[in-house]
Automatic annotation (TrEMBL):
GO terms for cellular component: membrane. It comes from Penicillium rubens (strain ATCC 28089 / DSM 1075 / NRRL 1951 / Wisconsin 54-1255) (Penicillium chrysogenum). The keyword Secreted does not apply. Belongs to the glycosyltransferase 32 family. GO terms for molecular function: mannosyltransferase activity. The chain crosses the membrane at residues 20-42, 62-82. Keywords: Membrane, Transferase, Transmembrane, Transmembrane helix. Pfam families: Gly_transf_sug (PF04488). The keyword Transferase applies. One of its GO terms (biological process) is mannosyl-inositol phosphorylceramide biosynthetic process. This is Pc12g06590 protein.
């Protein structure tokens, strides 16, 4: 295991996801201090980061080893730079602010007492939403089959609607119901950023379940059970209970938290996110899981935890509900580099005397 001693703390090389969500706001805020346009001199941070990424992708074994170390040091430096500058960079898990769901079992009383807190008619509608550029899902991937038909096979017999949104239909939704978001949405430099915001939009507008096309249902019974918990929204996890993922989630129509997340996404859009030099990290910070997690932390801080009406699937329980094949279809060279770290380097980290799950 690689260890780095910096500023009185000892770090081991970790997966990029754990590091991002341990101090996500601090990391990305620190990256924004790089000059724009970024200076690509041989000794500039941009150049060093670029060469490290290229070393991971194309270098030999020892070159990759060194490049992984350089990238890890860059992220660690970012953590220290603004470690205490943001009140929402809390590295602790989210269990104090939301329900962590470790299992779900429907009792017979659910059907006998439809008017109690576990209503037979869920607040979260029986609709599964998915998103692609067009209706032709054959263009989705050459490595896997889109999960759309699998959701139909599993849930249509149970009176669910499986809905596919295209780019054109989403634009119609924004023009009609969310015109304040249109300029930000159209201004994103990457399609994945629009897809990230679109999934929040469609669930806020209609309610239901969102699943990426590389997310497959494991148990229809478990999905129904989650809907019966009478929660406003439920999210899949990232790095244990450190973050909220956006590849699978469900919510009631007009969820206040989803609207809050949309506002946070707009705040981070436009020129603000372009100061982050690495596209993969820019997506995470501006519209991806890091943005959704930061939005929740601010939401919980402002409104308190008097109503624990948001749920987070426990890491060990998630596979009982869905299977995520992580297609990574939008990743560029930088994304492949970070995933190389996650896939090939020993995991683990000790930060401030705490072990992260």
């Amino acid at each position: 295991m690689l260890l780095f001693h910096s500023f009185g703390r000892t770090y081991s090389v970790v997966s990029y996801q754990t590091l991002l969500f341990a101090h996500s706001e601090s990391v990305f805020a620190s990256l924004t201090v790089l000059p724009a346009p970024c200076v690509w001199r041989w000794n500039s941070p941009c150049y060093i980061t670029q060469q490290a990424i290229m070393g991971i992708i194309s270098g030999r074994r020892w070159t990759r080893f060194i490049a992984v170390g350089i990238l890890s040091l860059v992220l660690i430096f970012g953590i220290h730079l603004l470690d205490f500058a943001n009140p929402f960079s809390n590295p602790d898990d989210l269990s104090a602010s939301m329900d962590v769901i470790t299992a779900c079992a429907r009792s017979d009383s659910d059907s006998e007492h439809p008017n109690d807190s576990h209503s037979a008619v869920p607040q979260i509608p029986n609709v599964v939403h998915q998103i692609w550029k067009t209706t032709d899902l054959r263009t989705y991937s050459t490595q896997m089959t889109a999960s759309h038909d699998r959701w139909k096979q599993a849930l249509e017999p149970l009176n669910y609607t499986i809905k596919l949104w295209t780019d054109d239909v989403i634009l119609q939704l924004i023009n009609g119901s969310y015109p304040w978001l249109l300029s930000t949405y159209e201004g994103y430099p990457q399609n994945i950023q629009r897809a990230d915001m679109a999934r929040l939009l469609v669930i806020h507008a209609e309610g239901g379940i969102y699943a990426d096309l590389d997310v497959y249902p494991t148990s229809a019974t478990q999905i129904q059970c989650l809907q019966s918990l009478n929660l406003e929204a439920i999210f899949a996890p990232v790095s244990g209970t450190l973050g909220l993922s956006n590849h699978f989630f469900m919510a009631e129509p007009r969820s206040p938290f989803l609207l809050w997340a949309l506002y946070e996404g707009k705040r981070r859009g436009g020129a603000t996110s372009r100061f982050i030099p690495i596209p993969y990290l820019r997506v995470f910070w501006s519209t991806g899981p890091t943005m959704v997690t930061a939005a929740f932390r601010k939401y919980a801080w402002l409104y308190g935890t008097l109503q624990n009406n948001l749920g987070l699937l426990d890491d060990g329980y998630t596979t009982a509900v869905i299977q995520h094949k992580a297609g990574r279809s939008w990743h560029g060279s930088d994304g492949r580099a970070f995933n190389y770290i996650a896939d090939h380097v020993a995991l683990g980290k000790e930060l401030q005397g705490k072990s992260l799950r």
